[in-house]
């Protein structure tokens, strides 16, 4: 079972995760079906910026984060932003959206100018997240764990980051055992997605380059 | 415009300010 302390940590992270989302008016404009290539580019860029902003607000609420060295805070966010964004996007694509919304969203991404060799692994990742049928708690915790990865480039005080990440891994581990008693591998599967995210992150820089070229 | 800001700039600005304001 989760201890009282672990339960509070989980609820606290879940609240922050639910609170900080991309503003609704922005997601609404994403669903308008008519758009030019330029409009699409601008909107996707604005979305990405907004996404980083809400991610930072979520991160600020992670217990202990603000006590870390300021440059380490930036190194953690810089190293993880792309992965956390892929995770949140995967959650959006996994949800049962109103009829047709998925198609409009996918259409926008496919017409963004990013080449297929980068788009395909991204949608494969979304699919692999969908197969796990993750709960909101798991999404919130996995995002926090991704952000608090001590092995990001330029992190100086690795030990302090480890101390923040570890209790979250323990909560996620126990949570998985409680909520997936028939799938003892669930926790391992979640951690496996983190490896996939690293690969996507690695290709992201190349993806941006190809986008700019187009 | 936001599109001219790099990831690190956005992170630094967001860390300094408060999104709620």
Describe the structure.
With 214 residues, chain A is an all-alpha fold. Helices cover 75% and strands 0% of the residues of chain A. Chain A has nine helices and no strands. The longest helix of chain A is centred in the last third of the chain and has 28 residues, at 186-213. Chain A is globular and about 50 Å long. The mean pLDDT of chain A is 90. By secondary structure, chain B is mostly helical. Chain B has one helix and no strands. Chain B is elongated, with a radius of gyration of 9 Å. The A-B interface holds A 20, 42, 45-46, 49, 52-54, 56-57, 60, 70, 73-74, 77-78, 81 and B 2-3, 5, 7-8, 10-12, 14-15, 18-20.
What key phrases describe this protein's structure?
heterodimer, A: 214 residues, mainly alpha, globular, B: 21 residues, 48% helix, 0% strand, elongated
Q: Give the topology string of chain B: H per helix, E per strand.
A: H
- Radius of gyration of chain A, in Å, reads 18 Å
Beta-strand residue percentage of chain B? under 5%
State the order of secondary-structure elements of chain A, H for helix, E for strand. Answer: HHHHHHHHH
Structural class of chain B: mainly alpha
Give the percentage of residues in beta strands of chain A.
under 5%
Number of helices of chain A: 9
Secondary-structure content class of chain A: mainly alpha
The counted number of beta strands of chain A is 0
General shape of chain A:
globular
* Global mean pLDDT of chain A: 90
Question: Which bin fits the share of residues in helices of chain A?
Answer: over 70%
> Whole-Å distance between the termini of chain B?
19 Å
| Overall outline of chain B | elongated
Helix count of chain B? Answer: 1
State the helical fraction of chain B: 40-55%
Distance between the termini of chain A: 52 Å
Instruction: Report the largest inter-chain contact.
Output: A-B, 17 and 13 residues
Radius of gyration of chain B: 9 Å
Specify the oligomeric state: heterodimer
């Amino acid at each position: 079972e989760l201890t009282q302390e672990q339960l509070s940590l989980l609820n606290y992270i879940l609240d922050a995760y639910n609170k900080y989302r991309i503003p609704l008016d922005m997601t609404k404009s994403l669903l308008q079906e008519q758009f030019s290539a330029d409009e699409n580019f601008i909107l996707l860029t604005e979305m990405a910026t907004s996404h980083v902003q809400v991610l930072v607000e979520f991160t600020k609420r992670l217990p202990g984060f603000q006590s870390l060295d300021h440059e380490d805070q930036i190194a953690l966010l810089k190293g993880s932003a792309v992965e956390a964004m892929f995770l949140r996007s995967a959650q959006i694509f996994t949800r049962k959206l109103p009829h047709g919304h998925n198609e409009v969203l996918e259409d926008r991404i496919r017409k963004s100018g990013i080449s297929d060799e980068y788009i395909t692994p991204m949608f494969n990742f979304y699919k692999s997240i969908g197969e796990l049928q993750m709960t909101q708690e798991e999404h919130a915790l996995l995002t926090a764990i991704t952000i608090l990865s001590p092995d990001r480039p330029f992190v100086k005080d690795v030990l302090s980051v480890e101390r923040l990440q570890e209790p979250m891994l323990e909560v996620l581990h126990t949570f998985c055992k409680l909520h997936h008693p028939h799938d003892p591998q669930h926790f391992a599967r979640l951690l496996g997605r983190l490896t996939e995210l690293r690969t996507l992150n690695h290709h992201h820089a190349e993806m941006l380059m190809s986008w700019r070229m187009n | 415009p936001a599109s001219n800001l790099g990831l690190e700039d956005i992170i630094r600005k967001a860390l300094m300010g408060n999104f709620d304001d």
